[in-house]
Amino acid sequence: MAIDYSTTPKAGSGGGSSGVSLAREIGLIGLLWASMGSIIGSGWLFGAQKGLVAAGPAAIISWVVGGICILVLALVHAELGAMYPMSGGSARFPHYAFGGIAGAGFGWFSWLQAVTVAPIEVSAMILYLGHYDFAKSWLKSDQTLTTPGLIAAVIFMAILASINYLGVKALAATNSAMTWWKVGVPLATIFIVALLGGLHTSNFTAANGFNPDGLKGILLAIPASGIIFSYLGFEQADQLAGESKNPKRDIPLAVIGSIVLGLIIYISLQVVFLLALPGSAIGKTWDATGNGLYTAFTGPWAQLASLVGLGWLAAILYFDAVVSPAGTGLIYTAAGARVSYGLARNSYFHSIFSSLTPARVPWFGVLVSFIAGCVCFLPFPSWQSLVGLITSASVLMYAGAPLSFGAFRKRLPDTQRPYRLPGGEVFSPLAFIVASWIIMWTGWQTDVKLGVLIVIGCLLIFNREMSPEHMVWRAAAWLPVYLIGMGVITYYSAFSLRTNPGSTMGLWTSLVVCAVFAVAIYYWAINVALSSEVIQRMVDEVVVPEEEDLGLPAGH
């Protein structure tokens, strides 16, 4: 029997709601494929090339480090997602731990990340479609969109939104079918290029060496070349938790399994791309530009396949360059709607965002995700122009999970945890340090743009009336200190990337200062979190009625 949200209290009060609940119809494979469908998107099409340009062959290390960083964050999400299976979960955990102020901030980061990934993927589709005559007029010489290209982008966004309106069953079925293809093509590409294209181990030391820029180059490549962006998406199982058949078993498996599979695939892609390059495509340095060099590839894997005599594979890859990004855009369109649904349930967004269609789809959230995605094409009309910004926003969203994890472990130590992360007391602050490092690695020029969007979000969200009980300033006092502090540290760090750097800290000093600051914020935050009674009551108002109505064991 479905729960009627119109009679169920909202955690955050205020306002009315929908007439029906989200349908719990997604199994383990659906959840795993939701996350994998997000991880294997446009990142695999461009990441290996961009990594090689940024760090040389040492980009392999960048993929390993980036994967470990995301895995640490994923482990924290796994416990939270199984503990409290709520739709849009990653956007809502900080609300229950720290109240409305912190919850609104992290909710905005989550929504911003979700609705801007789909236009990135559509941009990637159009970039590869530019290979065909019918789409050549869609792109300018600098690979940004023309007017016909903008029209095509809006049409693609509309198709993604339309599939979401069909309901969660149609979404899961469509995404599952696409994800089998999306995972199969990169794996097949790895083996075919390795076996038939030939591998040149001398490429490890070609150009200006294996690791031309040292540790700094390795770390800078993690956000700059789209490595973190490529790994984004494991949390989609969390976002769809409210529609999972068996969330307490399936969410940890889907979250952890997706990032492990993604790590294996992306590291293998980087190694094969590096070793398959003919010597004639490599310049004197790994970032050298010129005619015929791999740095000029606009469709890296397809052009590499053609270069090594695998034209038939190139044709498949040009087709996949539409399917893979489309699948990721599809699931992120769904995620944006589910995040806004969750934020409406917490009274940050208007209650209309929690209204559902007869197919139990948050229709207004899908519509707004479509509109916001289309708007992104105006100031950010290319794949490259959005990746760094969204990486930083995404990791900032992820930073809320370890803080919530620590608060729940401290305030609700006896609550049932279907999946309990071993060594969580160590992993949790480590995950927050990792998130802070990645934000710093993106550089000042990216973070200052993110700061502008944060200010816009505050003006939009805090204009709404929320229950005074949840506007607890003490519990969120650390948030503005953290945001400003990270801005200052990034500005003076070795990773600043300012045009006129001036005085900056050394590399190791930057890493240590950022880590110490993150640890201080972490323990400050969990020590001022809401009381056990308030957290439990807020969670019970949303989670427990859903579990009891579905016949699931209570989460505490």
Give a short overview:
This protein is mainly α. It is built from 22 helices and no strands.
Give short descriptive properties of this protein:
556 residues, mainly alpha, 0% strand, disordered N terminus, disordered C terminus
Computed structural class: mainly alpha
Mean pLDDT: 81
SSE ordering: HHHHHHHHHHHHHHHHHHHHHH
Principal-axis shape: globular
* Low-pLDDT regions: 1-22, 544-556
Major beta sheet, specifics?
none
Taking the alpha carbons of the first and last residues, their distance comes to 22 Å
Q: Helix share of residues? A: 55-70%
Q: For the CA atoms, what is the radius of gyration?
A: 23 Å
How many helices?
22
Regarding quaternary structure, what we see is single chain
Q: What is the beta-strand fraction? A: under 5%
How many individual β-strands?
0
Could you explain how this protein is built, in words?
- With 556 residues, the chain is mostly helical.
- Helices cover 66% and strands 0% of the residues.
- It has helices spanning 28-39, 43-55, 59-83, 89-98, 100-129, 147-165, 168-197, 214-224, 227-231, 236-239, 247-276, 300-307, 311-345, 363-376, 383-398, 400-411, 424-441, 444-461, 473-476, 478-492, 507-527, 532-550.
- Helix 2 (43-55) runs antiparallel to helix 8, helix 4 (89-98) packs across helix 16 (400-411) and helix 13 (311-345) packs across helix 14 (363-376).
- The chain is globular.
